[in-house]
């Protein structure tokens, strides 16, 4: 099924003084209407360029971008501007007009579209209510906190009744609690108004929290894409594994390096529990059945697509045959099992 | 010494200086504002890069700004004659003041607009705003404080230039200072004109800064 956003063979080359730089290479993406699609990668991976190609703020060097079946590259300037008004965007640094108050900021896209000032104001008041900022209508952006500014930016983005909302690192300048509240607002917008959301981020936590699908970008290449749960349980590439285990658990950094020491040269596996498999004491039963101890190197629960998932890294006994039967045993019980070697550099 | 006659001359001088300064500033912005906006917009990092237009305006601004004002005053006399019908007096001075001020104003407007946060401009582009809308509703709005500060500086400079035009009979306080203070050795009249010039610059500076401060919504 053709998605609301179809990207085919997209390549973007920047001309710099040092020569040509390939920011993106041969990207293919299909985003379905109603998805919350995460695009994750380290800084400099090209994800910000990619999101700007989706509304042609950056023109791709090669390849096509289709929105609802219409090729952006074939549009005239006027058509393209109309199309952009249907694709809203929010930013890391909010990008509000500093000299205009909250209500005028929200009216801005409506005024551009030629709406009468009175109607625009009425609509803006409604939007303020949705983002919970009614009391700040007359305030200027400099009087607001980061989270409040992003709420205003979201209200402004919704003003044009868009079908798609692009978020460029929208929570990266916010503290964890504010990030939470902005993410749940985005989720609410997605379910209530059916707006397709594309989220650019470098934080796995953001993707786990609200995204249904994810694409991993590394050095200009799309290395992996799929449902968040599938990638969380069976990451295929090194980049994906790194992002998942690295997560945002900075506090675990020391722990992780110790783990790496322990895991070197030994047989370790990573298993993921879904909520229904946590009723049975799987690990304990396995140890009883095989009569061999396993070493638990890491155990954690993470919120994936709104459901709690357990994650565990086990070190298995030396005996290879035993290892195989243990893996079999875990798989039979519906757990996602895989070699953990990729997690060690 | 301080006869009624002298007072009337000084008063008329203040009037002429104000007339020249304000009218030249007005025409200076009429030319300089679009020129500055065009410079900022056609810059290679602007929203509509255009090397040819940028280069033409860039070179024009540099040429005019590198000619000393007194020379420019004499250089464009034929043009002044064509527009005003004479080459002396306040109205004639306005022509040269305008041409001298326009590129200076354009440069200040250009730098004010270049200071506008690129992210806000990008946000407007992402909403489908065209070039004209971005200039009118984003650049000029966000840069207005900075543009007003620039205008305050421009008025001060134009006021100074207008006094220089006194050398060739340009009218205003500078003219009085040269005729009475320099040619007739009436030092006290010269001092009086200098004090009046200082007071005028102070007044414009204070009004300009108050106004731009009040209009700036960034800090409060």
What does this structure look like?
The complex is a heterodimer of chains A (345) and B (220). Chain A has 345 residues and is of the alpha/beta class. Chain A contains twelve helices and 14 strands. Chain A has helices spanning 47-54, 77-85, 102-112, 117-130, 146-159, 176-193, 204-210, 228-233, 238-246, 253-263, 282-290, 320-332; strands spanning 5-16, 19-31, 36-40, 62-67, 70-71, 87-91, 164-168, 196-201, 213-218, 221-227, 268-273, 295-304, 307-315, 336-339. Chain B is built from ten helices and no strands. The model of chain B has no long low-confidence stretch (mean pLDDT 93). Chain B has helices at 4-42, 51-66, 69-75, 77-84, 90-114, 118-126, 131-142, 144-164, 172-183, 187-215. Chain B has a single domain (4-215), classed as Orthogonal Bundle (MetI-like fold), CATH 1.10.3720. The longest helix of chain B is centred in the N-terminal third of the chain and has 39 residues, at 4-42. Chain B is elongated and about 70 Å long. Chain B has 220 residues and is mostly helical. Chain A binds chain B through residues 55, 57, 81-85, 87-89, 91, 93, 95-101, 108-109, 111-113, 140, 142-143, 160, 166, and chain B through 117, 119-120, 122-130, 133, 137-138, 141-142, 144-145, 215-220.
């Amino acid at each position: 099924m053709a998605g609301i956003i179809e990207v085919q063979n997209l390549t973007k080359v920047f001309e710099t003084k040092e020569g040509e730089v390939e920011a993106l290479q041969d990207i293919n993406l299909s985003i379905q209407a109603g998805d919350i699609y995460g695009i994750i990668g380290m800084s400099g991976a090209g994800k910000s360029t990619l999101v700007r190609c989706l509304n042609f703020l950056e023109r791709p060097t090669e390849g096509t971008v289709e929105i609802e079946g219409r090729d952006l590259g074939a549009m005239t300037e006027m058509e393209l501007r109309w199309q952009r008004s249907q694709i809203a965007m929010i930013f890391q640094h909010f990008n509000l007009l500093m000299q205009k108050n909250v209500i005028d900021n929200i009216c801005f896209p409506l005024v551009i579209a030629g709406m009468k000032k009175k109607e625009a104001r009425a609509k803006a008041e409604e939007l303020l209510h949705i983002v919970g900022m009614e009391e700040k209508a007359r305030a200027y952006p400099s009087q607001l906190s980061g989270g409040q500014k992003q709420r205003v930016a979201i209200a402004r983005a919704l003003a044009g009744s868009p079908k798609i909302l692009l978020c460029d690192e929208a929570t990266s300048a916010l503290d964890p609690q504010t990030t939470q509240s902005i993410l749940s607002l985005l989720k609410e917008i997605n379910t209530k108004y059916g707006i397709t959301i594309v989220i650019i981020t470098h934080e796995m936590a953001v993707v786990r929290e609200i995204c249904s699908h994810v694409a991993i970008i590394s050095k200009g290449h799309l290395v992996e894409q799929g449902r968040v749960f599938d990638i969380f349980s069976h990451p295929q590439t090194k980049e994906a594994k790194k992002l998942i285990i690295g997560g945002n658990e900075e506090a675990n950094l020391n722990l992780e390096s110790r783990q790496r020491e322990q895991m070197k040269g030994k047989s370790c596996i990573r298993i993921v529990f879904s909520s229904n498999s946590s009723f049975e004491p799987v690990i304990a039963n396995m140890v009883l059945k095989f009569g061999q101890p396993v070493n638990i190197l890491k155990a954690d629960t993470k919120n994936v697509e709104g459901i709690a998932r357990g994650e565990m890294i086990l070190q298995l006994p030396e005996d290879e045959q035993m290892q195989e039967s243990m893996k079999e045993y875990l798989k039979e019980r519906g757990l996602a099992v895989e070699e953990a070697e990729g997690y060690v550099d | 010494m301080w006869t009624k006659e002298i007072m009337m001359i000084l008063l008329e001088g203040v009037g002429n200086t104000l007339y020249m300064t304000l009218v030249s500033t007005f025409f200076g912005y009429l030319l300089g504002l679009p020129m500055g906006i065009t410079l900022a917009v056609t810059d290679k990092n602007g929203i509509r890069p255009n090397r040819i237009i940028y280069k033409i305006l860039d070179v024009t601004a540099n040429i005019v700004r590198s000619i000393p004002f007194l020379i420019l005053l004499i250089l464009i006399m034929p043009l002044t004659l064509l527009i005003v019908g004479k080459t002396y007096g306040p109205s004639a001075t306005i022509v040269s003041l305008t041409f001298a001020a326009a590129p200076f104003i354009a440069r200040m407007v250009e730098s004010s607009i270049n200071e506008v946060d690129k992210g806000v401009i990008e946000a407007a582009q992402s909403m489908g705003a065209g070039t004209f809308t971005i200039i009118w509703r984003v650049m000029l709005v966000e840069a207005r404080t900075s543009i007003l500060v620039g205008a305050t500086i421009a008025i001060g400079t134009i006021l100074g230039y207008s006094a220089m035009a006194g050398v060739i009979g340009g009218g205003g306080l500078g003219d009085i200072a040269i005729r009475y203070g320099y040619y007739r050795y009436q030092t006290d009249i010269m001092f009086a004109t200098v004090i009046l010039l200082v007071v005028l610059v102070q007044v414009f500076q204070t009004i300009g800064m108050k106004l731009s401060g009040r209009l700036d919504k960034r800090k409060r």
